[in-house]
Amino acid sequence: MSIEVNNLTKIYKLKRHQKKTAVNNISFTIPTGEIVGFIGPNGAGKSTTIKMMTGILIPDKGSISIEGLSFKKNRKQIMMKTGVVFGQKSVLCWDIPIIDSLKLFKDMYRVPDDVYKENMASFSEILGLDEFIDQPPRLLSLGQRMKADLAASLIYNPDILFLDEPTIGIDVLSKERIRQFIKKINEERHTTIILTTHDVSDIESLCEKMIIIDKGSLIYDGTLPNLKSIYKTTDLEEIIKSIYLAGEEKYAKIC
Amino acid sequence: MRKYVDLAMIGIKEHTAYLNSVWANFLAKVIYLYMQFALWNALFNSNSGSNIPLSHVETIRYIIVATVISTFMECDVIAWINGQIQSGDVANQLIRPIDYRFMIFSKHIGTSAARFMMYTIPLGILIAVFYRGDLFIKDQLVYGIISILLAYMIQFLYSLIIGLMAFWLIVTWPLNMLLAAIYKLLSGSWIPTVMFPELLTTINMFLPFRAIYAIPVTVITTPMSFDNICENLGIQLIWLVVLFSLSEVTWIVGKKKLVVQGG
């Protein structure tokens, strides 16, 4: 499923007469089957944009169209096809064995038995899910919980997957496995993936395209190689640093 | 349908996840009931009950039935929604292809089922062993059950409305603390509402609280005419409609005002 975002704006009201424009007139398109790195410094408006794209927050202006569908009219249809992983928030029930949460999603998204079994087998194989499936999240390590969260969001074969910092606080090896898994899902199912992360190596190993925002505005929308050729270096971390720094300086001047 | 059953099962499992708290909860109910029992007995023995509108037996019957009903009528919905809003976890509930309110309701039903099995039935057995005498009017039991079901819905909708207000107030439990005190008094879960002074009775007429305990308990424990029963059920139905409409409005407003906490 493709995503089209047009002139998206979200304003938070802080106190009386005080407003903060979290997202300012952003437009971009993400075609079906792409993995897009969605990055920006802390507080740039990434999470707010993701929350609007997943239908949690209602935009103040602008529109989001997912394969021609809109949240106003086709909310349920979109939700059935969307998977979301928030690295800092678990979708799993804290005190309940993982397997029960997965069964809930199976019924909620009407997953046929054979698809469920097939997915469970592949989760066990790549993520080692079977080792901790009978335990509740409160007894799991962060890495295990993250893997379980990924499984819970992919059990119903979504067409779009939002990953909001999926590798935060995860050890190197688990990170590698999670990346491989994301890549495999994208290749096999042509899932459109929007990845938010502060980990440059996540982007290097997964994304073809990048969208960069800062202070609520879009500052780059294009391919990774193109960005590297603009800055004449292959060190992505350096590029991102200089982009963020330029943003900060601009802000200093305005003040 | 199965997803709702799953949610109810999760509600049951969540409520029974910590066995110690289940025991503590049950003991609290037993002690509370005994306290109520001892208090009212002492009150009637010292005063001969001349200026109390209910008789000694009727009062004891009332407080027993009210306490038994309270074991499964209690509702964690406000705390759930508050917790989800404060932590931002509500985001994970709103991305599901089913209505947030139905999810909460299904889980609440599960919790109530767990409460019924673990508190109501054992407490009922204890009462059957220790209390001699009839607790309910047999002919009115069917209406009593209907009334309890209506009360259950009213209780849920009331909690849902206060809970959903957290969508823009972020924290509603202090508001709930205030309301809880009013609720406990006016609903008739502590003191039978017929004992209230006139002013309080008049105020109570315009509040939904008595529809949660006073009406069902009275229908179960006090003989009354068919018309009277219908009138009481009618009052509950009206409150159900009013609260349902209010919850719809709160939901629509809340969705627009929601700010998900945390990055």
Instruction: Give me the secondary-structure category of chain B.
Output: mainly alpha
User: What is the H/E order of chain B?
Assistant: HHHHHHHHHHHH
Q: How many helices of chain A in DSSP terms?
A: 9
Total helix count of chain B?
Answer: 12
Percent of residues in helices of chain B: over 70%
Please give the alpha-carbon distance between the first and last residues of chain B: 34 Å
Summarize the structure.
Chain A is α/β, with parallel strands linked by helices and 255 residues long. Helix content of chain A is 43%, strand content 24%. By secondary structure, chain B is an all-alpha fold.
Report on this model:
The complex is a heterodimer of chains A (255) and B (263). Chain A has helices at 46-53, 71-80, 98-108, 113-127, 142-154, 172-189, 200-206, 224-231, 236-254; strands at 3-13, 19-30, 35-39, 61-66, 82-86, 160-164, 192-196, 209-214, 217-223. In chain A, helix 4 (113-127) packs antiparallel against helix 5 (142-154). Chain A has 255 residues and is of the alpha/beta class. Chain A has a single domain, classed as Rossmann fold (3-Layer(aba) Sandwich). Chain A has a six-stranded mixed beta sheet with strand order 5-6-7-3-8-9, sandwiched between helices. Chain A has a three-stranded antiparallel beta sheet with strand order 2-1-4, with helices on one face. Chain A is globular and about 50 Å long. The relative contact order of chain B is 0.13. The two termini of chain B are 34 Å apart. With 263 residues, chain B is mainly α. Chain B has helices at 2-15, 19-47, 56-73, 77-87, 90-94, 100-130, 141-164, 166-169, 173-187, 198-205, 214-221, 226-257. Chain B has one domain. The model of chain B has no long low-confidence stretch (mean pLDDT 91). In chain B, helix 1 (2-15) packs across helix 6. Chain B has twelve helices and no strands. Chain B is globular, with a radius of gyration of 19 Å. Chains A and B meet through helix 2, strand 5 and helix 3 of A and helix 1 and helix 5 of B.
